[in-house]
What we know:
The chain is α+β, with helices and mostly antiparallel strands. The protein has three helices and two strands, in the order αββαα. It has one domain (2-68).
Amino acid sequence: MVQANVYRTLLDIALGIRYLHDLGIVHGDLKPANVLLKSTNTDARGFTAKCESCSFPVCDHACEVSQIW
């Protein structure tokens, strides 16, 4: 179960980056320290992932990788 959560989170991050790229945005500083986990009851993992350090106005929405798909 833990390994599945890790893979799901990696997939969420990859899909989030693809979404940003589709918007023509390159994050430029993706690293573990810039992936934040937020507790939630709406995801079976108990958290959602959000990337930090976006300097673009659209990123407040685009970086919430777990809830876009």
